[in-house]
Amino acid sequence: MANLLGVALFALAILVSVSLHEAGHMVTAKAFGMKVTKYFVGFGPTLWSFKRGETEYGVKGIPLGGFCKIVGMTAQDDDVDPADEPRAMWRYPVWKRTIVMSAGSITHFVLALIAIWIAAVSLGLPNQDFPTTDAEIRQEPAVIALSDCVIPDSAPRACAPGDAASPAAQAQLRDGDRITSVNGTPINNYGELLVALRGLKPGDTAKLDYVRDGQPGTTSTVLAQTQRPPLDDPKGAVAPVAALGVGLVPTTPTRVTYGPVAAFGATADFTRELAVGTVQALQRLPQKVPALWTAITGGERDVDTPISVVGASRLGGEAFANKAWLLFVTLFISLNFFIGVFNLLPLLPLDGGHIAIAWFERARSWLYARIGRADPGRVDYLKLMPFTYVVILIGGVFTLLTITADVVNPITLFPR
In the prediction, which pLDDT does 297 show? Predict the structure, then answer.
């Protein structure tokens, strides 16, 4: 039930953000004097509406977005009343049209920034100094997390029959103990612990000094045997090595909470990382199509494959059910930022396509004036329709692939 409620809440958050996207177009268009005739949340049959001034506001039956109708978005619009011609959008200066067309994406960016700031002062943001590489992890203090057994590979999994019992557990060590020496060799970090253990053989007795709750202690245990690659070559051939049956508990916090003022700087840093990640994700989209097809046809789902709104809502539901509030908010932030960037791509029918054409017209008019030729006028959108249909087709197929993968083989972040 909690999962379903989380899905519904996340889907509602997406609907609100998309509706605000259209509101951004509407508000800026009205501010410049353009005529806006409709603003609706949803598509399909009208459920409820009212008219205020020259604009009809309402809700439609299919809650999958929204739209706002601005009179004369292109010079080819043939439904413009002659009385409205002076207020047709295409007649306005290019900078005003740019603001109106980019206002939707700007709204998404503003929503993301607000959510990042709120997370920074309440939930905390991911710590950029948290160790992620092998080199960084090995510099962490040797604070251990006990395993129930010794798993003979590097990938985490549940213990299976035949796995050796954890020597550390047999030695009465506990989660959170910090190993300070092995057989008299001082241990300053997790990397030194690994090196010391690799210097021993399976079946050797290891004398372990440790600190627990500030108090020193000593124990000993017989090391088990497992299979591991060399420490300096994680992809190398595996060989029998001694194992203690422990993992690392990073002492570096995974997230940092900021004060109201410091949160602005943290928001800027997080946004910069988010922007880089979003651009990289867009660049990888074509490469991920085969992985999506593999997931649909029964293969393992790559967690790095794109997700649809359906997939994002499912993950939001999981985060809500598991009280992973930062994940829930981060999903909302990432989705808004991605939509904002994607919508500015210079392709029709995206807002970025209209902006690109507006500036192309402006640049072409300037150039023709400089060379003494007549202004060629507006771009004929009708001639661009074949390209627009291709973009719509590619986008539709990609959306269908992601939705299908999210239904038949969804990404899940929490074990069930």
Answer: 87
Residue 337 — very low, low, confident or very high, per pLDDT cuts 50/70/90? very high
Sign (positive/negative) of CA torsion 98, 100, 106, 110?
positive
Which H helix or E strand runs over 109? helix 94-121
Q: Which two tokens stand for residue 27?
A: 């508000």
CA pair distance 34, 26, nearest whole angstrom:
9
- More confidently predicted of 61 and 113: 113
From the candidates 22, 192, 318, 361, give the one annotated as an active-site residue.
Answer: 22
CA 399 → CA 5, 16, 37, 118, 223, distances in Å? 24, 20, 30, 31, 52
Cβ contact 137:54 at 8 Å: no
For residue 136, pLDDT over 80 is answered with: yes
More reliable by pLDDT, 272 or 164: 272
| pLDDT reading at 2 higher than 80 | no
Q: What's the CA dihedral at 351, 353, 357, 360 to 10 degrees?
A: 120
Show the CA angle centred on residue 414, arms to residues 147 and 326, nearest 5°.
105
- Evaluate the omega torsion of the peptide bond into residue 234 and state whether it is cis, within 30 degrees of 0: no
Q: If you write DSSP's letter for every residue of 146-159 in order, what string do you get?
A: E-SEE-SSSS----
Higher pLDDT residue, 237 or 185?
A: 185
- Strand, helix or coil for residue 2: helix
192 is catalytic: no
Helix (H, G, I), strand (E, B) or coil at 40: strand
Query: In this structure, are residues 45 and 61 in contact, taking their beta carbons and an 8 Å threshold?
Result: yes
Residue 76 identity:
Q
Q: Report the C-alpha gap between 246 and 222 in whole angstroms.
A: 14
Nearest-5° Cα angle at 26, 24 to 30 = 120
Cα angle 249-229-183, degrees, rounded to a multiple of 5: 60
Residues 205 and 19: their CA atoms lie apart, in Å, by 66
Q: Is the dihedral of CA 313, 315, 319, 320 positive or negative?
A: positive
pLDDT, tens only, 213-262: 999 999 999 998 888 888 887 777 888 888 888 888 888 888 999 999 99
Whether the per-residue pLDDT at 310 is higher than 90: the answer is no
How far is the C-alpha of 303 from the C-alpha of 148, rounded, in Å? 27
